Amino acid sequence: MTTTTHLIGTRRFLPLFVTQLLGAFNDNLFKNAMVLYVVYSVYNSEAEEARFSAIASALFIIPFFVLSALSGQLADMRDKAKIIRIVKFCEILIMLVGGAGLVLAWQGMLVKTVAIPLMLLALFAMGIHSTFFGPIKYAILPQHLKSDEVLAGTGLVEAGTYMAVLAGTILAGWIEVEWAALCVVLTAVVGYFAGRQVPPAPPLTAAQPLDFHVFRSSATLIRKTMDERRVFLAIMAISFFWTIGAVLFIQFPPLAKNVLHASKEVASLFLVIFSVGIAIGSMTINALLKGKVSARYSPASVIVMGVFVVAFHLVCANWGTQEIDGLLDVAGFIVQPLALPLLGTLLGIAIAGGMFVVPLYAFLTTSVDKSQTARTIAANNIVNSGAMVVGSLLAVGLSAGGVAIADQLLLVAAMCLGSAWLGRLLYKAELSAAA
């Protein structure tokens, strides 16, 4: 029996895996249903569509930047399983608000004045939900799993997350918003009951007063975490990766509509391909490393990712369609001469990205004391979210400056070089520590 198969069958892993999977599914079903509806049904301008997509991404990310220090303190100093139950109950309330916004949009009632603000409010609240759940999903793994199971567990969580992203993205592109509204509420309810099955995970350090001054506690947490060079390099490399991811995800819907002349189902297909690729990369790197937590393949992986980004840009730049009425559906898109090369390069981007980032998350959870794990992940989330906000603002600025969506991909490729450099420094630090 493989480590992966063994973990799936255990209570110390399966309930957390299912809870995380359902949460990721719900996040993406709701967010993509909202973004695709607004891009395809409300606005009719590439700049406006890119701006709305960036605003939605930024609203989801901001809570990570502001509240991660508090969430890390809570996760390290309180029972993680109890926090999961509270957070998942709040998800039900959040999705009732978001579902109401989707229903109003379906009815065409007060779309810009009430429906869209309600949906954005729910998205912001889901960002808060994910901020408090995020440190737990990684920090609980070293507490419940053996040392030689952590990489496999991290890989499974990442693969499961992106398969859930896949499922949520597919549904968002294919079902009507009223069904999306019902689905997000039901999923939140099921996620709550799954979260109740997570075994206790009491704190491994003595209880300390919580610092509710979010900016001071964030600065203190980052400073203390960054003292360890390997942790610092891992966090910076992951941050570069998620900046790249933020720009790509902002670009996908307007790129599909305005450059490829494709429908929202095709935009959904892009996100599906990306999610499948991340999952494949997550499992591939676990097999290559044979359970050892190492950044050995990270520099090469992200360079390959950059090569695929350039190839994706070239395909988009040379895209051409015959005169058509309306937008291409999936069947019409697939028969285009450059459709398969485009999807192939997108898949390559995602596989290489998964191979790059998964070992770095495992590295963060295993290179510090177990009593500090959640706060380390929280510090990582703060820096990551700040980098993603910068990426979102950069995408908005480039769009406002008249830079074509397809040309913005070249910036993503250049950022891959920065990630590769950081990955190389991390691997050298890893070798020095092992010597």
Automatic annotation (TrEMBL):
A Pfam family it matches: MFS_1
Gene3D superfamilies for this protein: MFS general substrate transporter like domains
Membrane topology: Multi-pass membrane protein
Cellular localisation: Cell membrane
InterPro entries in the record: MFS (IPR011701), MFS_trans_sf (IPR036259)
Transmembrane segments: 52-74, 86-108, 114-138, 150-173, 179-195, 231-254, 266-289, 301-320, 340-364, 385-403, 409-427
Keywords from the named record: Cell membrane, Membrane, Transmembrane, Transmembrane helix, Transport
Organism: Novosphingobium anseongense
Main location: membrane
Domain of life where this protein originates: Bacteria
Signal peptide residues on this chain, from the entry's feature table: none
Keyword Transmembrane in annotation: yes
Organism lineage string: Bacteria, Pseudomonadati, Pseudomonadota, Alphaproteobacteria, Sphingomonadales
PANTHER family: MACROLIDE-EFFLUX PROTEIN, MAJOR FACILITATOR SUPERFAMILY (MFS) PROFILE DOMAIN-CONTAINING PROTEIN
UniProt-recorded name of the protein: MFS transporter
